[in-house]
Amino acid sequence: MNSTTMLPHFQQALNNQEIIIPLLLSLLAGLFSALSPCVYPLIPITLSIIGAKKFESHVHGFLVSLSYVFGMVLTFTLLGVIFASVGKMVGTAFSHPLVILIIAGLFFVLALSMLGVFNFVLPESLVRRLALVGGEGRKGAFLMGLVAGVIAAPCTGPVLGFILTLVANSKSIFFGFFLMLFFSLGMGTPFLLLGTFSSALARMPKSGLWMDSIKHILGAFMLGAAFYYAGLVSPSLKGLFVSLSSLGFLPVILLLFLGVVLLLVRPRADYPVRRALQLGTGAGLFACAIASLIFSQWSLSDSEEQIENLTWHIIDAHSPDTSLDNLVFQGKMEGKPVLIDFYADWCVACIQLERKTLNDPSVAFRLADFLLLRVDATRSSEYIAELEARFNVLGLPTVVFFDKYGHLVDDAKVVGFLEPAQFQKILDRVSPPR
């Protein structure tokens, strides 16, 4: 994706405020990664190698440090574009419940690594070799920035794995680029500030247990994401988080606060079992609160007043085998085009399509002219599988259309999430506005 197509897409996302929070969280993740035990002690060492003590002025220090940050930006944004491209090639496979469970399991393992259950360790020979890359000046700083993420992999690896999995799941190159751009800027901020004002190196806070607390908070966030993805597949787990969120915003925030306290307050060092239980409990409470907050955002679409009084006919695993054909025939008799939405509760893109597109005012106005069918594939059955094969549904969401004469409109099929304006063009093609 070139800049001429990426920037308008990015501006549209900013206008819709759909990317602001992810970018801020990615920036904070990068900053917290820089303050973790694997990166923070490297800051004065790195700045010393690129010649911080020899900087002639603040401007000189800023330019050399900026070169280091540019190196990180290049590496991380390239990773973001690659993972987004892989997601585009894999396509709707990310909506399969087995893949969602694998993602949840991956996030769970990454969370355990950040919580200190185990650590990623790179071979010492590789670390020594990478540490020799670069040197003084802008060129040396840039080369060091290129390999900075690898050297700091024991702490940044789980965070990067977490973000890159989200990028691949999004299948958006512009999202992957900007998310990793903000992550690298967040991680590079301490290097940039301390490189510009090198005299502040002597006043840096000493390394200590506070850095482990930052790792644990990041790990708890990852655990919350694991709970969320697991809830997309498990209705009972999702019901638990939705019920928790229904208690109100204040109880969930209190739960979050209690989790933070348990993660930050350290008992005496001679009580390792007590420390492990406290850390696990704190991370669990924090993660439950995070998952509940996320599910509360999705559940808003169920409680919000619909813009138009639309009626959806639901076809699920318990529906009779002729229900869809009968409804299509009903649409033909009423002279109405038919929209069939293949949906599942565990499908993130399905929820996004419903929340952002189908509930958009202009789209909802047009949908009033359609007979609306929803094939709920949350629970599979022989009939649901037959319908998916009949309409060649390879992933969710998939939307197919019949015109008012009962004919399938082949060129109007929608696979995956579509923005409201694009979706409305499809509707106009199936049934031109009066």
List the helices and strands and how they pair.
Elements: H1 3-15, H2 20-34, H3 42-49, H4 58-90, H5 97-114, H6 124-131, H7 137-151, H8 153-170, H9 173-196, H10 209-233, H11 235-246, H12 249-264, H13 272-303, E1 312-315, H14 323-334, E2 338-343, H15 348-358, H16 361-367, E3 371-376, H17 382-390, E4 398-402, E5 414-415, H18 420-430
Parallel strand pairs: 1-3, 2-3
Antiparallel strand pairs: 2-4, 4-5
Helix pairs in contact: 2-8, 2-9, 4-7, 4-8, 4-9, 5-8, 5-10, 8-9, 10-11, 10-13, 11-13, 12-13, 16-18
Q: Could you walk me through the main structural features you see in this protein, from its secondary elements to its overall organization?
A:
Residues 1-17 and 300-308 have low confidence and may be disordered. Helix 4 packs antiparallel against helix 9 (173-196), helix 5 (97-114) runs antiparallel to helix 10 (209-233) and helix 16 (361-367) packs parallel to helix 18 (420-430). The chain is built from 18 helices and five strands. The chain has helices at residues 3-15, 20-34, 42-49, 58-90, 97-114, 124-131, 137-151, 153-170, 173-196, 209-233, 235-246, 249-264, 272-303, 323-334, 348-358, 361-367, 382-390, 420-430; strands at residues 312-315, 338-343, 371-376, 398-402, 414-415. The radius of gyration is 25 Å and the shape is elongated. The two termini are 37 Å apart. The chain has 434 residues and is mainly alpha-helical. It is 66% helix and 5% strand. The protein has three domains: 3-208, no CATH class; 234-303; 312-430, 3-Layer(aba) Sandwich (Glutaredoxin).
